Amino acid sequence: MIIGYTAGVYDLFHIGHLNLLKNAKGMCEKLIVGVTTDELVQYKGKSPVIPFEDRIEIVRNIKYVDAVVAQADMDKLEMCKKLKANVLFVGDDWYNTDKWNSYEKEFNEAGIEIVYFPYTKGVSSTQITKALKAIRTEEKQLEFSK
């Protein structure tokens, strides 16, 4: 059985997230998704808009997802080993970077394939967050000018 694993914050769930999960499920029999905990997101210097409990519930209810786990640290190799995943799915922004070239060797030694998926053009949680902040700032400025 091919077991796939992917992880992400999944904040402000959008079509890019859905595309990744759909494509990943098409390449494995069981797809397990790690949802990054609020503490890990904050460790990375960001703050999620949607709380962890809500994000994990959203992902759990996507039809392509067979199981959901909390991703509380950056060690995806250990998580794949723990879950007995044969394949790790990640975004192609990591492809051919020094860090991920090193990871590929470690994953290969463990018998785990890394599959890179292209990001959906024109959409990201970061872009959505920036757009919302701009709208809110504009709304506040309109309130003050009244």
Relevant terms:
single chain; 146 residues; alpha/beta; five-stranded parallel sheet; 6 helices; 5 strands; 46% helix
Low-confidence stretches: none
Largest sheet: 5 strands, parallel
Helix content range of the residues, please? 40-55%
State Rg. Answer: 17 Å
How would you classify the helix and strand content by structural class?
Answer: alpha/beta
Mean pLDDT equals 86
Number of DSSP-assigned strands: 5
Q: Helical region count?
A: 6
First-residue to last-residue Cα separation: 63 Å
SSE order: EHEHHEHEHEH
Strand order of the largest sheet: 3-2-1-4-5
Shape summary? globular
Strand-residue proportion: 15-25%
What does this structure look like?
The chain is α/β, with parallel strands linked by helices and 146 residues long. It is 46% helix and 19% strand. The protein has a 5-stranded parallel β-sheet, with helices on both faces. Helix 1 links the parallel strand 1 and strand 2. The longest helix has 21 residues. The termini are far apart. The mean pLDDT is 86.
